[in-house]
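Example record for the data management plan.
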Amino acid sequence: MATQEPSGAPSALTSSALAAIRRTSAVDTVRARISLAVDLGLLAPGERLPNVQATAAALGVGEITVRRALSTLEREGVVQRRPGRTGGTFIAERPRRRTVAQVAAYREDSERVHRLIDERIVLEAGFAHLAAERLGRPGLDRLDECVREMDAAGSWAEFHASDKRFHLALAEGAGLPSALGMYERITGELYAYFLPYPLDYLRGSNAQHKAIRAALAAQDATSAAALLRDHVAELHHSMYVGFADTAERGEDG
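Corresponding structural encoding:
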């Protein structure tokens, strides 16, 4: 019989209905994520966005949702769409900023995002420790495949998809199915807050994946857990919440 969590003890698994993002439509969350990435300088003027299919997969929404969001962002002056074989959707050369009111939901959920990151740190560090002892050659091969895909990724959307597979493969390698469901719920909640990031920055983070993989192959449980802990803990600074805090301090100064 499942143990009931004491009332008044919020967690990522029980309080999601209270999150501001849950009160925002799917179309508006896409608008907010792209607009916020522009506001924070993560998407540059003139940068081409991935195609609708890739964007939808990366943001965890349907293709119709992405199309509707992009149409609205175009009217709002955040993106421009160009026809033809070399066309697509681009960040406007002079994008309008702070035009999407729903961005406020992401700022309101800042504390919740930090909590989700901490919960992910606890689980993934533990998974890495166990995986160092239990992950065999097939598991290491899966990690290698993901690393190669991230090195070759042509967009933030492609990188994000391979990054998710890398971390899931590592979690599965721990051989602890009872904890895997909890991990998938936490990361599912957290992925809803990820924004597009510069591809050069993302590829740089792949060096950390390679170091984690090397520690696992060496069956160095202590190093693998520490590297994974530090890798995930960096989200406190590299996710939008960290960038937003820095930007706000700059504005106050």
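Summary line stored alongside the record: Residues 15 and 170 are 27 Å apart (CA to CA).
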